[in-house]
Sequence to fold (163 residues):
Amino acid sequence: MSTPEGEPRDVPAPSGEELDDAVRSMLLLMPRLVGRAKRIPVPEPLRGFALAPRHLSLLACLLLDGPMGVNDLAARLEVAPTTVSLMVGDLSRQGILERREDEADRRRRIVAIVPARLPAIEAWLSPGAAAWRTALRPLSAAQRRLVVDTLLAYEAAVGRESD
Fold:
C-alpha cells in the first residue's frame, strides 16, 4: 500500500494464504518471463559470436550508458575489474567491443561497442529496456526500488538454496 504521495507505508505482513497466493503467481510468472527472454532472437549479424548472459549485461550497460572505463563497468555490473577486463578482452577479440585511450587521461582505456555492431546490439537489447520502462514508468521511485530490491532478494535466496 502507498500513501497519497506514492511512498510505501508500513502494512501488516500478509497472511499465509495471501503470501501463498503471491508465491503461486510468481512461480507461474517467472518461467513465462524467462521463456519470453530466451525466445528473443539473436540478430543475424551477432549469431556467429559466443555471447553468454554475462556479456549481455555488459553490452546493456554500454548501450544504456555509453562508453566507459573498466572500473566504471565493474561497479555497474557489481563484479571485479579483472572479470570485466576478461569479458572486454573476449568481446574485443570477437570484434564486438573496442578499447581506446581516454583523451583526458591517456593511462585509462575507454570501452565502447564497435560502431558497426551497434545497430544489431540495439535491435536485440532495446526491446527489453523499453518493456522495463513501460512496466516501471507508472511507479514512484520508491516503488521501483521495491521491485528491484524484491528481485535482488529473490536472486539471493535462490542462490542460497542452490549452494
Remarks:
- The first helix runs from residue 16 to 39.
- Residues 114 and 142 are 36 Å apart (CA to CA).
- Helices lie at 16-39, 53-65, 70-77, 81-93, 118-136, 141-162.
